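Example 3.2
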Amino acid sequence: MPEGKLLDEDGALAKKYTKLLDYRARVLAALEPFRAAKHAPLDARVSIKPAAGDRALLTAAIAELPDLFVVSAVELDPADAAGEAEIHVDQARGSRCGRCWKWHEAGGDVDPRCARVLSEMKKAS
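Structure, written as tokens:
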């Protein structure tokens, strides 16, 4: 395995992921009542009302947030929170993908990402 170099703690990348991991911790805490009600995290759709100043970061990372939070969907509320970020968790919409188990609204047995992967695998074989 190659050795990586340490990340500059004052660099933009470190600051970005420090903030995203802070949101991840908040989402995981908000998921606890949902999980206690016998739901799996992948059954969740998370809605975030970002703290002031965090909208641009979350908007830029919106495609990676479901994987970071291990949920099916993440949406940003159109308004910013007055103080701390507000996180709401409810049941994801649509149907469950037979491959990755995430919920999606695209229709069909698999979500668009898995359909693309399966298509590429079929071409490669």
